[in-house]
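[step 3/7] inverse_fold.run input=structure_tokens len=198
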């Protein structure tokens, strides 16, 4: 099977993840090459009825590593959710967790200059982790060490050392908010699923 055939098959099996990845690529291109357009996608409070800006920052990525890191985690975690529960389930999780993590990040930082899918990634992590406690499903299980690594990365980001050593700004509010909303959604859906199985 050729590489293009593999990509097409993956896109067909995971249309939700594919849509989110394409949005992230477009957002990264705007942030890198057409920043004035990207500025219009940033969230700077609920002004002038531009309510879509509460979600659009998840697509903005600043730099190649930021984009690659988030896209890999989105494919790994989002792919599991979409495969098991469907595209609409995944996209609703992304919509809710992205909006809430962006609101928390804006409140935390007080500035519109943030973006990226990492709040959603942490929400998916929290969702899979907690839901798996109620309804263990092999397809949803995380590889060993992933949860620990992501939680340690969250704590490292909060220390400010990445900003100090590498000049990397970290959206700590989005990370923490995403993890918490993902855990809450995992709890709700996990309880509902467990009740249905009884």
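[step 3/7] decode complete -> sequence:
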């Amino acid at each position: 099977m050729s590489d293009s055939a593999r990509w097409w098959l993956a896109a067909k099996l995971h249309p939700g993840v594919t849509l989110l990845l394409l949005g992230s690529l477009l957002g990264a291109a705007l942030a890198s090459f057409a920043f004035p357009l990207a500025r219009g996608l940033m969230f700077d409070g609920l002004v002038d009825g531009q309510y879509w800006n509460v979600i659009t920052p998840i697509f903005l990525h600043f730099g190649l590593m930021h984009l690659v890191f988030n896209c890999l985690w989105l494919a790994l975690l989002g792919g599991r959710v979409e495969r098991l529960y469907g595209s609409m389930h995944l996209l609703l999780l992304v919509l809710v967790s992205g909006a809430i993590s962006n609101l928390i990040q804006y409140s935390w930082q007080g500035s519109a200059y943030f973006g990226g899918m990492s709040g959603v990634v942490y929400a998916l992590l929290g969702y899979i982790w907690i839901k798996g406690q109620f309804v263990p499903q092999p397809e949803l299980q995380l590889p060993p060490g992933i949860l620990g690594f992501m939680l340690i990365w969250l704590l490292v980001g909060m220390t400010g050392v990445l900003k100090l050593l590498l000049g990397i700004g970290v959206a700590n509010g989005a990370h923490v908010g995403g993890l918490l909303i993902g855990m809450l959604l995992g709890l709700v859906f996990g309880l509902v699923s467990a009740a249905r199985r009884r």
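[step 4/7] annotate
The first helix runs from residue 3 to 13.
The chain has a mean pLDDT of 87.
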